[in-house]
Amino acid sequence: MVYTIDMQDSLIPDLTRCTLCGSCKAVCPTYELAANEAMGARGRLALVKGLTEGALPPSALLNDRLYSCILCGACSDICPLGIDIPEAMYRGRHVLRKSDRKRTFLRYLLKFSTSWPDLSFKLLSVSRDFLLPLLSRRKLIPFRPEIPDQPFHVVEQVHKVSKKKGRVAVFTGCSVNFFLPHLGESLINVLQSLGYEVVLPKDEVCCGAPLRALGMDEEAAALAKQNHRIFSKLKVEAVLSLCPTCTLSLQHGYRSLIGKSIDRAMDISVFLLDKLEQKSFIDTSTTYHDPCHLKYGLRTWKEPREIITRAGLALKEPSESGCCGFGGTFSVSYREMSQNLQKKQAANLMAAGAGTIVTSCPGCMLHLAQAIKDRPVIHLIELIEEAYCLRKLYQEPVLAQTA
Fold this sequence. Notes:
The protein has helices spanning 11-17, 29-34, 41-52, 60-67, 74-78, 85-96, 104-115, 117-126, 128-137, 174-178, 181-193, 209-213, 217-231, 244-258, 268-272, 292-297, 302-310, 330-333, 335-351, 362-369, 380-394; strands spanning 157-159, 166-170, 196-200, 239-241, 265-267, 285-289, 314-315, 356-359, 377-379. By secondary structure, the protein is α/β, with parallel strands linked by helices. Among the domains are: 11-96, Fumarate Reductase Iron-sulfur Protein, Chain B, domain 2; 276-394, 3-Layer(aba) Sandwich (Rossmann fold). It has a 5-stranded mixed β-sheet with strand order 1-3-2-4-5, with helices on both faces. The longest helix has 17 residues, at 335-351. Residues 1-8 have low confidence and may be disordered.
């Protein structure tokens, strides 16, 4: 059987344009660990080309090479021709999905949880004492998260303000909705303090990124269509998310899946930067971790740093920076590589000597917190809430003081 992708697909010219310059190898986190051509961006791109042309048949080894990409996007960011290498990986995985038995159960699990998210949450809540340990033993989750009493996004809500400056919608995302609802509450507090009415639309579903990572394009497209239908009709200034992967999916991934995007989707740092006033300096320092999808996919790295310094904190940059190793399903399928990247980046961040680690991604935050135990790892929205809401309330710094 020959596995091919439609040759009219816009991906095909990208596959043939690669000049094998090797620039992508210098920034590929998995190539750094394995030092194997097929474990780097250039090698994987050549494998996808061979697969789509019918020269390479599906195999366990080919599956391993294409699924071991963490999909960080650093390769495309540095590529002199601007080739969309993560998109090539998505397409290659879609071709290989039926031959990839290693992740069969994970696909069933994701399909169930994204099709019936509320039921999945209830099942997880009532069985947390035995189901989470079971999933951990089977290495289907990278760590055991805390399960809140209820999701953040229960019903459609409109959080109004007395003096409205504007109106925004929030794309909650699965991690905030089901595991970190306090981040959603922080975002609403900040937006309302700035005079923004906040809409939490009914029937929001997963952004689809985890499904695409497993080659499940049809299932991801169905979710994309539902989200686009819901959010595109809202009369709002912006659609904000606390998760860069969600934002990247809404902005760019949906174009590949369904031919249209949610153009008003943006990261909170981009939306909030010019709306936050300068605060006086306090004796508190922090180090910032760049989420890959925010830095490389959305090309946003200045804004979070400007917000940190505008909030009055000293920013200490690490001498080295890199991927935290989470990568969603990557941390499940390639646990050893994930943990090696996690430990390296955690060491880089701690070596900067700041009292707090800040990031803009719920996944990065949870993953890094497993390796960093001696200081808090928080989301940028928590820092903003403390600086502009809680500090105003108490008229004093509430962030941990550091030497």
